[in-house]
Amino acid sequence: MKRWIGAVSAALMVLAAMPAQAADKVVLMLNWYVYGEHAPFYYGKAKGIYAAEGIELEIQEGRGSAATTQAVAAKTADFGYVDVPTMMRAAIKGAPVVATGVLLQTSPMSAMGFADKNIRKPEDIKGKTVAITPADSMTQIWPLFLKKTGLKESDFQTVAGDGQTKLNAVINGQADLLLGYVMDQSMKIKDATGKDVYPIKFADYGINMVSSGIIANSDYVKANADLVRRFMSATTKAVEAAEKEPKAAAQSILDANPKGGKIDTLTQGFELTIPLYRTAETKSKRPFQVTDQNMTDSVNLMVEYGGLDAKAKDNPKAFYTNDYLPKSGS
Asked: pTM for the whole thing?
């Protein structure tokens, strides 16, 4: 009996001396500099949601969805948070990338200006000046918005520049509106001026297409299926937790990035993002559960208006998978 107890004690001592299994290090690269939309990732990390799935998460800021997609394709980032239509354009040209979850299932694209200018509907754009960034995702879909609303390019003036130039044009009064995301550029303008912004949302005029989601290298997904499942499980839980505590989620951005913005506009930006997570078809589902129809419609719109190669319509499912998402009760 003493020998048995001694053997058990020795075994327990060996187990105690063994190091705990190391967490998997994962790099998530964002689509852009941090803003309110990114709150769930920081909140999930701060609350230990990723750690609970055995993941040590590093969040890196991006410099545009195209650049982040390139980084994921080259495996310099494990996952990316990007504009999914931008990812599609890279994938159809051979980039080995796939969306493992589509978070924003309603488009955040809009034409926005100061609320006190009283530009509330497409008809109000006539005679105004619109600031655009040539070749970005919004400018590519802009012709469809014009078609849907009966506007012509001759109805207004345009000024062109990069993202900051576009913001400055509205802030300084050189333009009445800019093309931007409801939870991004509007908050930057409010931070700079203290003035409210009113967005004319593309989605309100029948332009229903997906936006941001998680992507990964196709080979990485095949080689790390369990890790991808754990990452998507943690990210789903992080989004759900952040939805319940928007201000705390926004604060987690500032805790990690003290110069990442102002708490009020970060919170407001995130609150503007939450309604974009689901469509009428997915309102009862967990985040990221995009429908085949939504993706097919998005591909069709991108082929017609967004410069996506027509062969994309042959197999829309090549661009995304829901196979790594947690089930309803997990």
From this structure: 0.87
